Amino acid sequence: MTAPACTPAAQLIDVAAARADLAWAVGEEGRNGSTRGVPLALVWDGGAWTRLDLSHLGYGGYLRSVAAAPDGSAWAVGADAGGTAHLLAWDGSTWQEADFPGRATSGTSLTGVAVGTDGGVRISGRNSDGSVLLHGDGSELAWTAPPPSATTATPSGVRVTLSGDVWVYDSAFVARWDGETWTELTAPGGIRPAVTGLLPVTADDIWLTGYDYGVGGPPGKPPGVTLKHWDGSAWSSVAAPFTAGMLSAIVDDGRGGPDRIAGWDFWDQTRAHYLRWENGSWVSERGPTSTTPVLPIGLASVPGAGGYWSVGTTSSSPYPPAQVHIEQ
């Protein structure tokens, strides 16, 4: 899949599809190591990906999560170079700033966005009062009450189930909001962990993806993949088809069950390493061989049409000449 050229170093962090002829991918371009670049956004019209001009937003930084609704509306969240959170709404042709409680306020962050079957918007993050979930219909958003543990963690993402339950998650905090109360799970933990995705199938069948750098190690040491399962009482580690690298995203099968996981295999970087759910276990599924390294970061299924979008970058380090990478 041909991707438009972006300013190196460029990466796509997330992708979402409304239907076969409408999808969005977001990330960052022009980054150089720890020096932030500017927000990056692409749109798919059924025939090609187009890079959008976001100069009207007027800030440097990145977009880290995007979500779509079947009616063609979409939302994205990110932050500027100073760490201030930003919420964007799709206006039919580009992205525009949207208001939310705590906008431009110190102590407020937005980390993930999801849209439920009811069209409601759910956003993970944190405000100065300790709330970790922002929700509403898009025109009016409100923070939920803080979870009972008064966690200091900022969840890295949010997932809405077909039944309408909302899950926020990170290595230190996994919890379900049913519209009235919080139910918190034991933290999945780790030594130096990162959680990239959560798929709640039922209350006693939950999958978690990510990676963990473990204890120390030489420069350039790769992380180890994290694949964990919740059985209703505890998290257990599940063996993946490869161990060095990362699992970066997980999607369901359209009915709430497990389907695909995107991954980066440290020992074979010229192909994405996906996991496919088959006969009760995860099995390898490789992407096409590339002339550059392939690091998939975002994964989305296409509603009503089948298939998937996978997006990422061509380098494990955010330095030029890294470019965006897209697979279908």
Placed side by side, the strands forming the largest sheet appear as 1-2-3-4
**What's the total helix number?**
0
Helix content: under 10%
Mean pLDDT: 96
> Which class of secondary structure composition applies to the elements?
mainly beta
Strand content: over 45%
Terminus-to-terminus distance:
7 Å
* Overall radius of gyration: 18 Å
What is the global morphology? Answer: globular
Please tally the β strands and state the result.
27
Please describe the biggest sheet, giving its number of strands, its sense, and whether it closes into a barrel: 4 strands, antiparallel
Order of H and E elements = EEEEEEEEEEEEEEEEEEEEEEEEEEE
**Unreliable residue stretches:** none
Helix/strand layout:
Elements: E1 11-19, E2 22-29, E3 38-44, E4 49-51, E5 61-68, E6 74-80, E7 85-90, E8 95-97, E9 109-115, E10 121-126, E11 133-136, E12 141-143, E13 157-160, E14 166-169, E15 174-177, E16 182-185, E17 193-202, E18 205-212, E19 224-230, E20 235-237, E21 245-252, E22 258-265, E23 273-278, E24 281-286, E25 295-301, E26 308-313, E27 324-327
Antiparallel strand pairs: 1-2, 2-3, 3-4, 5-6, 6-7, 7-8, 9-10, 10-11, 11-12, 13-14, 14-15, 15-16, 17-18, 18-19, 19-20, 21-22, 22-23, 23-24, 25-26, 26-27
Summary tags:
4-stranded antiparallel beta sheet; 328 residues; 0% helix; mainly beta
Characterise the protein shown here.
There is one protein chain. It contains no helices and 27 strands. It has a four-stranded antiparallel sheet, with no helix packed on it. A four-stranded antiparallel sheet has the order 5-6-7-8, with no helix packed on it. A hairpin with a 4-residue loop joins strand 3 and strand 4. It is globular, with a radius of gyration of 18 Å.
